[in-house]
Design brief:
Helix content: 55-70%
Structural class: mainly alpha
Distance between the termini: 20 Å
Largest sheet: 3 strands, antiparallel
Shape: globular
Number of strands: 5
């Protein structure tokens, strides 16, 4: 990824978080009421406490713990240092909050990913790992990741990718003057017109 692409990606993530978290986020740690409700009917159903509320959506403690455990396992498999539990949980929650905000934005923009696209993406992943889909699925599940969670995450990544592409397309413009100047700088004033042009200088609206 070139410097412009990295800058655009970072700007979008920062802008999305700044615009959405302040207004949309309410933290709701497990409190006495939740504990009392759980204790009142232990034989019926345990109550999953809420880690955060993002607009009309919630992130439960169970979802947060599952994601944190998954991240920790992946880091261990990559022989990478695993942060302390509190720090890892905080980082994972921040990422989940940003993800939910972006998914809500994608929904508002009418961005969807159908089952066929998810299946195709998973097939590509299996092929990239030189495995059949059946073997790839077995390998994923052997790592403690339910297949339903894996395909859900694949759909999320595809959705966010579409959102980022749309955001970048809406913010990136190339003026006629820039095109003319670039062509002139590449071929000189007397050179013949080239068929293929590689435009690297773009203007990003901020």
């Amino acid at each position: 990824m070139n410097g412009v692409a990295v800058a655009i990606s970072n700007k979008l993530r920062g802008a999305t978080l700044a615009a959405g978290v302040g207004a949309a986020l309410v933290f709701m740690p497990a409190g006495p009421a939740a504990a009392a409700q759980t204790a009142a009917a232990p034989s019926v159903q345990s109550v999953d406490s809420v880690a955060a509320v993002v607009n009309d959506d919630v992130i439960t403690e169970r979802e947060l713990q599952q994601r944190a455990d998954l991240v920790a396992r992946r880091l261990q498999q990559q022989n990478a240092p695993v942060p302390p539990t509190d720090q890892l949980t905080r980082q994972v929650l921040d990422q989940m909050i940003l993800e939910r905000i972006q998914l809500q934005r994608a929904k508002e923009d009418g961005i969807t990913v159908d089952d066929a696209a998810v299946d195709a993406a998973v097939q590509r992943l299996a092929k990239a790992n030189n495995m059949s889909l059946e073997i790839y699925r077995a390998r994923i599940e052997a790592q403690g990741v339910p297949w339903s969670v894996f395909t859900r995450d694949a759909r999320t990544e595809l959705t966010l990718s579409k959102l980022r592409e749309r955001e970048v397309d809406s913010k990136v413009t190339v003026s006629d003057a820039e095109v003319a100047n670039y062509i002139a700088s590449q071929r000189g004033p007397d050179a013949k017109v080239q068929q293929d042009l590689r435009i690297e200088h773009i203007l990003v609206k901020v």
